[in-house]
Amino acid sequence: MQATGLFHSASRAIAPRKPLTVSQWADANRVLSSKASAIPGRWSTDRSPLLREPMDCMSARSPVQEIVCIFPIQFGKSELETNVIGYTMCENPGPIMAVLPGEVSQLKFINQKLNPLLEETPACAEVLTNTNSRNSSNTKEFKDFAGGQLYVEHAGNAKRLKGTSAKLVVADEFSSFASSLKTGDDPDALLDGRTSAFPSTFKRMSVGTPEIVGQCRLEAKWEISDQRYAHVPCPHCGHMHPLTWSGFHWSTGVDGRVIRAWVVCPECGSEIEEHHKDWMTDRKQWVPTYPGRKIWGYRANFLYYRFGLGPRWQDMAQAWVDAQGDPARLKTFMNDRRAEAWEDQAMRNVKHNAIADRAEPYALRVAPKGVLCVTAGVDTQDNRLAVQLVGWGRGMAFWVLDYVELLGDPAGPEVWNALTEYLNKPIQSEYGGTLRVEAMANDAGGHRTEDVKNFVRSRRVRRPLCIFGAIPNNAPVLSKGKLQDVTWKGQHDKRGVMTHHVGTVGIKHWLYSRLSVDSAKDPELRVTHFTSELPAEYFPGLVSETYNPAQNRFVNRRGARNEPLDTWVYAFAAAHHPELRLHRATKADWDRLETLLLNQVAPGVYEAPETKPAPVAQPVQRPLIQRPSHNRNPSRPTW
Question: Per-residue pLDDT tens for 227-286?
């Protein structure tokens, strides 16, 4: 008997170690710290069954190499990541790279997630190099362990994402990664390059909650994944189905407060009460929408919260009801609880195809009735000038009259000569007279700043403005001019060029709000007008940017150039020229412009009617005194 026991002990000692999955390793070794967990102590995957399959995809024996996880907040995303990191350190060692969106989130991850993992989980502490050693190379952002190294970086600097080879890459809150870095690099592409040294054994996971439609990196990853949803059985008929927002219902009392919430089975129509959700999630199955795709995607919402590990359905329904009418709260609920990307209603209604469908059949460079003044916006590129003519009418209604690109390097005179000829050419009006461009704004940002200043300084067109985009998001439409030229005495030259800053964020909000509500079928009721003769690329370019509340800025969508939007913004700024101020024009001002146009008199030129002096019975002889003129700017219209 003793010999048999010795043989069994020896065989167990020399037998190869059985490969573990991430969930098996976590159940056996992981210890949750009170610093970062509401339930400290031993980790149990049974408390979060929806995390089992995503974790096991990161196991050494799993054929899956990349996953994307879109979960609501407080769903265990950080525990998913730390379990994968701890497993890789102990069971499948190699270089690991954990990447956060910015420096602040990087420090939070280190202090709240990584350090408790290394301190409280004995298996991780054993493989980690002694941090108390004076010669230890371990730092806050770098950990050396047996068989590998752990780098904790942030995606705010391209240098931190280069020069490192990694077998495992964990991207936390991936939707918050910048669309591009200051160097022009794509952080997602840089992370792909980190695993190129491990073509057959690498693992990568992108985790987080979604943010804004059209900008969310998680959504972009999700679209190319196999899109797995957790199907759960109906407790009444057994039908397997995902828990979706469309199947979520609630009832309210007389005071408008939510008193009950439930889910409806799409098969039998039975009402599923919340007390069934733990039973259902214990029996869940992740079902792919597109089997066979290389990337595996996992998605869930607040309906899958376990009892005691998240808000109840009734509380979530009440939060949704309370958020109505508040875009900020609606966005937070959509992102954090429903795990869906947010799309503002104004952004939803400014699709380029919808605007193109509203285009009207008037000719280019022909001002329809209602246009009483014309301004121009010019965007300067290294090889061309993009120009847009916008006509303005009562209430700041606008008509896009033309959009062209004048080819030529702005460093030479040819393209500026073409611009001068283009802007000084009369514009035919349907009233019968002609209009001319009353003001133009030329963007001086980029590599041709001095050439733009020189053109504005020459004053070859009416009321030229040299502009730059304002940095503050609450900047006025057109700032007060600032003198740029100096005399030989070192003083500002009052006859030199002035530069103005343009509040682009506020102008784009104004434009998008007009576009979102201007869907009248009758063109006479609209305040935004576009000719059907505009080039096809104009409409995608006009709405090529979307508003990002996190940055409080408009950011570019991929695939469309934004010169149509920029030149419209500059034409709007030109309408605020101190000598025009169309946004402050009264009914009498518009009536006068219309009368002048009907009489075929160029707008902006005031001709006083001839009047005869009243007869004087006995004129009095007075000394002749020459008085100074009070009109210091005769070219300014006397509105």
Answer: 999 999 999 999 999 999 999 999 999 888 999 999 999 999 999 999 999 999 999 999
> Each residue of 25-70: pLDDT tens digit?
999 999 988 877 778 889 999 999 999 999 999 999 999 999 999 9
Q: How far is CA 313 from CA 51, 245, 258, in A?
A: 20, 11, 10
Q: Which of 575, 516, 563, 536 is nearest to 398 (CA)?
A: 575
Q: Which fold has domain 352-587?
A: Nucleotidyltransferase; domain 5 (3.30.420)
Q: Which amino acid is at 587?
A: K
Q: Please name which of 605, 608, 603 lies closest in space to residue 593, comparing C-alpha atoms.
A: 603
Strands in 248-252's sheet, in edge-to-edge order, are 248-252, 258-264, 271-272
Lowest mean pLDDT segment, chosen from 188-192, 380-384, 577-581: 188-192
Are residues 508 and 564 in contact, defined by beta-carbon separation less than 8 angstroms? Answer: no
Q: At 112, which amino acid appears?
A: Q
Alpha-carbon dihedral angle through residues 124, 128, 134, 140, given to the nearest 10 degrees: -70
- Spell out the domain ranges in the chain: 16-129+136-336, 352-587
Superfamily grouping for domain 16-129+136-336 = P-loop containing nucleotide triphosphate hydrolases (3.40.50.300)
The C-alpha atoms of residue 194 and residue 96 are separated, in whole angstroms, by: 10
**Burial code of 219-248, b = ≥16 C-beta within 10 A, e = fewer?**
bbbbeebbbbbbbbbbbeeeeebbbeeeeb
Does pTM surpass 0.90?
A: no
